[in-house]
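Re: export button greyed out
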Amino acid sequence: MSLVQFVEQTLGTDNAHRYINQLLETVQERNPSEVEFHQAVREVLISLIPVLSQKPKYMEHAVLDRLVEPDRLISFRVPWTDDTGKIRVNRGYRVQFSNAIGPYKGGLRFHPSVNASIIKFLGFEQIFKNALTGQSIGGGKGGADFDPRGKSDLEIMRFCQSFMTELSKHIGPDTDVPAGDIGVGAREIGYMFGQYKKLVGAYEAGVLTGKGIGYGGSLGRKEATGYGAVYFVEEMLKSAGLGFNGSTVVVSGSGNVSIYAMEKAMQLGAKVVACSDSSGYIYHQAGINLDTIKRLKEVEYRRCQDYVLEHPDAVYVEGCSGIWTIACDIALPCATQNEINKLSAELLVRNGVKAVGEGANMPSTLEAIDVFLDNNVLFAPAKAANAGGVSVSALEMAQNSARLAWTMEEVDLKLQQIMHNIYSESLKASQDYGVPGNLVVGANIAGFVKVADAMIAQGV
Ligand code: GLU
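Workaround output, generated via the alternate export path:
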């Protein structure tokens, strides 16, 4: 059942629908022009109608009125000097959305598109995603409108140091624990950790996650989001008697999430035929060579385009959305928000896609999600499917607190267990609230209930 049909079915049945409509209007009025934030709130609020109908206490305690307003949004100047000696200025953000069940937790994104709306949509999603993992982590997010593309290593370092000089005032191992996201990987986390350490004068390993293995990072963190997404999709496929083995897969993006989603899908017997970056996509009918992609992206910081220099039987096409015209059994959008619109979703359906797993945050528009659900495509929503990254971040925090380090096998086993639990909890919530198999609704409800109950217990 699509979200549209779902709303129609619940329409007029009780106060819940009216309440949600009013709240959505308030959110739009209070946060004008923050379209990504509106979209994320809309998806969650609509999904929660059946819980509010059955449990009006959540309306009486104004849980959602409180949750759509972050605890605080910090915005700050980030001045830095480029290699020519010119002074440059970017804007940094940290949104601390909810610490009802644990310290604020969520990544940092460095990308020119970053603004308050993007950071707030990501922070809002993070509340429910983090609750779904079953770990004690609240919701937060941050970043800057800084473009790391084409910057030298020293420029990246100076930017990270300046960014952390301000951010350090607002974070801490029990307060708020940032990590990576688009444009922020182990290198950036390293520079930020170095600066934080210098500023506070103490070795607080648990203040950031995604650290290098030699100084407090967790084995398996780098792989966790991609592996976790594939573990989740494999569970979903299993319920329909399907699997990755023998399937053709398209994975957008070529960053951390995409690379390890490709790796795990290949390990499970899939053929991955395409991936992309923000300039265009590569199609390799024989199957993508992951070693080449890893070297190009992780070591040499180069573009996907260069892949065809080494693999002349592959083709490179300018522009990103064309990747969804490729026929596949399973689509894993692992690039960025709103990369699949209604038209792309329709093309995927026409070409026979059986399952979609969201590795990125909010990669499908609401209309695209409806196309998938209307056409009975198995759909794994981001909050559930990409929760593996933050889950292993929480495992990194646990290792830092205990001052020990687990093996890759231990971490991977825990990740598989967590993804399994997220799948069963989301499925159960979808069944309990009358939309069996709709994991969008199921994941939102399962995450929400944990946060809402904690908020009620802690008072206003
Ligand atoms: N940026 C990732 C996410 O969207 C990971 C966050 C983290 O590890 O704290 O969930």
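The longest strand covers residues 87-98. The button fix ships in the next patch.
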